[in-house]
Amino acid sequence: MSIESKKWLFHVAIEKTNKNTHEMNYSLIKDVLDLIKMFENENTGISAYQNDVEGFKIWMAKKYQPLIHDQEVDWEGKLTGRTTESVIASLVVHMNRFGKNYFKSAIYGSDFSTPDDVIYLIVLKFSQNMSKMDLIKKNVHEKPAGMQIIKRLIANGWVYEKDSDTDKRSKVINITHAGLRALDAVMEKVRHATDIVSGDLSNEEKIELIRLLNKLNDFHQKIYHKNFDPKTLLNNVKDFKTN
C-alpha cells in the first residue's frame, strides 16, 4: 500500500477518534495499522486487490463479512456425523487425483514418463543451480521417489549436474537445452490441464481458494521440513494445531 494511502487511513482513524472522544485513541490507530499490515501480507504475491485505499476497503468488506454458517453447506455423510475435517481431507485427495489425470493426458504420446518429470523441469527452468534435495523438497517428495525422477531426467539428457560453486563437495543440477525443448513441446497442453483444474470457479473464488490453500500449505510445510519419522509423525504434529 502506498504511503499516501496509509496517511489517509491514519488521518481517518485520528478524525474518527477525535469526533467520538475529543482525544487521541492510540489503540484504534494501532488496530488500523495492524489491519493494513495484515492486508499487505495477504495481498503480497497474489495481488488480489489494488494496493491502495480502494483495494483495502474491498478487502475489509470481504474479510469481515458474516461467515456462511455450516448449516448452509451440505456434504455426504453430514447427517450421520461426518466432520468438516474428513470432508476437506477427502476433497484434497480427490483434487490431487483429478489433477494427475489431466496432466497424464497432457503428456500422453510425449517423451515424458510422468507428470512429475514435467514439474521438476518447470522448477529447474526458473531456478538455477539447485541441489537435488532442494528440488525434491520443493515438490514435497520423499527422497527415494525424488531421486528416481532426477535420475530419469539426467538419463534423458534434460538435466545435468555439476560441482557447486560454493561447496565443491556437493553437486547442483540445471536444465539443459534439450530439457527446455522437451518442456516447450508439452507446455501448451500442460497449460490447458492447469486451466481445467480450477474448473468453473470465478476469478474471485480462485483468489479466495489461493488464500486458503496458501494458509494450508504454510501449515503443512512447517511439518514437512521437520522430517519427522512416519512412525511418530502424527504424535509430533499435535502441537502444530492451534485451534
From TrEMBL:
InterPro entries referenced in this protein's UniProt entry, alphabetically: HTH_MarR-typ, MarR/SlyA-like, WH-like_DNA-bd_sf, WH_DNA-bd_sf
Domain of life per record: Bacteria
Gene Ontology BP terms: response to stress
Protein name from the UniProt record: MarR family transcriptional regulator
Organism encoding this protein: Haoranjiania flava
Single GO MF annotation: DNA-binding transcription factor activity
Residue ranges of domain HTH marR-type in the record: 85-218
